[in-house]
Amino acid sequence: MVANTRLRSLDVFRGITVLAMILVNNPGNWGKIYAPLKHAAWNGCTPTDLVFPFFLFIVGVSIAYALASSKLHPETHNKTLLRIVRRGLTLFALGLFLSLFPKFAFETVRIPGVLQRIGVVFILAAIIFLKTEKRMQLLIMAVLLVGYWLVMMYAPVSGIGQANLQPTTNLAAWLDNTLLPGHLWSQTKVWDPEGILSTLPAVVTALLGVQVGQWLKRKDEPGNKIAWLMVWGVICTCLGLIWDLHFPINKSLWTSSYVLYSGGLAMLGLGLCYWLIDVKGYRKLTTPFLVYGVNAITVFFLSGLIPRIMGMIKVDTPGGEVDSKTYLYNAFYTTWLSPYNASLAWALTWIFFWMVILYVMYRKNIIIKV
User: Where are the transmembrane segments (predicted)?
Assistant: First the structure.
């Protein structure tokens, strides 16, 4: 029987997800990336587009485990709420620091971001779990998904006109540019893939994880839990594909169809890990992913910080001065590999580099919690 404490499968699934984040965020050359390691240009979904929602889904599962005891003791809710807000704001601050570093240009800093969204989603999903029961949670999820679909598909856009889903003229883009002008993603300028309005359906992604976490904590036979988890994973995936016919699957907009599609696949992925690791006991090959999973935020933050530091270190070459990352990449990868393979090899090197560090931390029981 599986214990209702910490799930090794959840840590492993989180580790796989963070490892994938580092893989897709650290190519040697952004112009030479294999298609599965790219985001979809707009509508559609690649394997890379599943990484972020998988992480938010895992955040939700973790909430159901971490706050279960506090939920049963209303007298502790105020202290728990303070911890929730503190942790969420810490995540937001870490993301903002990455946006600022190394120039600290406050007047143009990108305010939205991956860690920022994780922080906001964590706060909202955790409060909803703590203060509501399952029926109300499901109602909130339905209202957010249907409400987001209605406003995105039918609400007119001020100064533009009819509702649309085009990159720069949709309602979410208008809201981003209205409230955060000059503080959006540098590649888009007028909208942000981690923008304000699309954070609401992202909360539902985490709440799907909350529902799964509550289900896995039930005192029931593991086989029964796995069976229903797989069934609902297939149902959500199919519903997402059906909704895609009217409200396209789109990561940048975090559309309702995308929430169901990615959430369903996350259920299937976690269900498979749970069956193999926690039920069948296959653990020998899971340690490389486990070490990523137990220090997920730490490695994600540092893997974003170190390349920025490398960009500050300059090296003189016969062709002129280059940053240390470019120097190492050209010296050790592009000289003997094709452009695409060199770019991939650099990313894989980063994965191995962090795996060694995280393994040492794991063996020494060093777990940095945010």
Answer: 12-30, 50-68, 88-105, 111-130, 137-157, 195-214, 226-246, 258-277, 289-310, 343-362
Whether 3 has a pLDDT exceeding 50, the answer reads: no
What digits encode the pLDDT tens for the residues 139-175? 999 999 999 999 999 999 999 999 999 999 999 999 9
8 Å CB contact between 243 and 260? yes
Tokens encoding 335? 């000289």
- Distance separating alpha carbons of residues 292 and 286, to the nearest angstrom: 10
List pLDDT tens digits, range 287-303: 999 999 999 999 999 99
- Mean pLDDT in residue range 305-333: 92
How many whole angstroms separate alpha carbon 268 and alpha carbon 233? 5
Q: What is the domain partition of the chain in residue ranges?
A: 1-38+282-370, 46-281
Question: In the chain, which ranges are E strands?
Answer: 314-317, 320-323
Note the pTM of the prediction, 2 decimals: 0.96
And the tokens for 290? 């486990």
In sequence order, what DSSP letters do the residues of 88-109 get, joined into one string? Answer: HHHHHHHHHHHHHTTT--TTT-
Q: CA 323, CA 28: separation in Å to the nearest integer?
A: 13
Classified as helix, coil or strand, 232 is helix
